[in-house]
Design goal:
The protein has twelve helices and nine strands. It is α/β, with parallel strands linked by helices. The strands form two sheets. A six-stranded mixed sheet has the order 3-2-1-4-6-5, sandwiched between helices. Strands 7-8-9 form a three-stranded antiparallel sheet, with helices on one face. The chain is elongated. The protein starts with a helix and ends in a 10-residue tail after the last strand.
């Protein structure tokens, strides 16, 4: 028995059953699936995303089917096109494809009855890797908050019950069950930044700061709490500046609050996020709006922000003929 794993599973209480478990066939998702199937027999569905990115993908699916048969758990397979565009991260493209598949599962109500909850096998090492990736990219609080233990997306409750459990502890628990798992060969490919972090940085951190998983988790929790407060403030400010935002109302806020509410507006209304450079340029332009004739037309995320009269608008089609000149 592994106490860390057992404690994490004992504390896990999904709001809705039946429960889907994201099942890749790897050690972490295999342990999570077996544990959930034991706690909620007949109420668990394994959900496997077939990315089609490597020759072994069909073998992964067959392996998952065999494990599910042993556990008496139904398997749902969703095939996606996870190829990445030029200049895009292959890891990010695969992640987006997975979450789109989760959303499709929730919409379609597979296999019988609506699935409103899904559990994912991310663990403490994955959380540290996510934090280090965010730091390497100069991320703000949303990035430093890493992965939440519970989130809602596309009408689906997404749970990560193992975020406090090291990967080694999960494998130790799984070895006691005599259940097979697969090792994804891409996990050894150091072309991927996350794999280099896993192979080089985590062992170095363990030697230098043996308790790094726990201390990093505390920092992640502080960042998440800070981001929650910023989100609450942004919602209050957006109610004042309006949607779309009114330039004069934005100018009445401090620069930091302007940045906060504009990020919030873009994400909530348009599902996009500006880069740090784009946001700074936008704030400069808002400050420079001292006359009605001051024109704003800036590239932001996959579209543009322009000034139309007293308001800021974001669009991702052709320029509006009504833009203020």
């Amino acid at each position: 028995m592994n106490e860390a794993f057992e404690r994490a599973m004992a504390a896990f209480e999904p709001a809705h059953l039946p429960l889907a478990v994201g099942f890749s066939g790897g050690a972490d998702s295999t342990a999570l699936l077996a544990a959930c199937a034991s706690v909620w027999p007949g109420q668990v569905v394994a959900f496997h995303v077939h990315h089609g990115l490597q020759a072994a993908a069909d073998d992964f699916e067959r392996h998952c089917a065999a494990v599910c048969e042993r556990l008496g758990v139904p398997l749902v397979v969703h095939r996606v096109d996870a190829r990445h565009a030029q200049g895009d991260s292959p890891e990010d493209a695969a992640r987006r494809a997975r979450y789109e598949a989760f959303a499709a599962m929730a919409r379609e109500g597979e296999p019988a009855g609506a699935i409103k909850s899904i559990a994912l096998g991310h663990h403490a090492d994955d959380q540290v890797e996510t934090l280090l990736l965010a730091l390497s990219r100069g991320a703000g609080l949303p990035g430093l908050a890493a992965m939440p233990a519970h989130a809602q997306r596309h009408g689906l409750d997404i749970y990560r019950p193992l975020l406090a459990v090291p990967g080694a502890d999960i494998r130790a628990w799984l070895e006691g069950l005599d259940l097979p798992w697969i090792e994804d060969p891409t996990n050894q490919n150091e072309r991927y930044t996350r794999n280099r972090i896993r192979a080089v940085l985590l062992p170095a951190l363990a030697r230098t700061f043996p308790q790094f998983r726990a201390t990093f988790a505390r920092s992640i929790g502080h960042a998440a709490q800070g981001q929650e407060l910023l989100s609450e403030l942004a919602a209050q400010d957006l109610a004042v500046v309006g949607d779309p935002p009114r330039v004069a109302e934005l100018q009445a806020l401090s620069r930091a609050r302007q940045a906060n509410v504009l990020r919030h507006w873009l994400m909530q209304a348009h599902g996009c996020a500006p880069s740090a450079a784009q946001l700074e340029q936008l704030l400069d332009q808002v400050r420079a709006c001292t006359t009605r004739g001051h024109r704003i037309h800036l590239k932001v995320a996959s579209g543009f922000i322009e000034r139309r009269g007293d308001f800021l608008h974001w669009y991702n089609s052709g320029p509006s003929p009504k833009a203020s000149r």
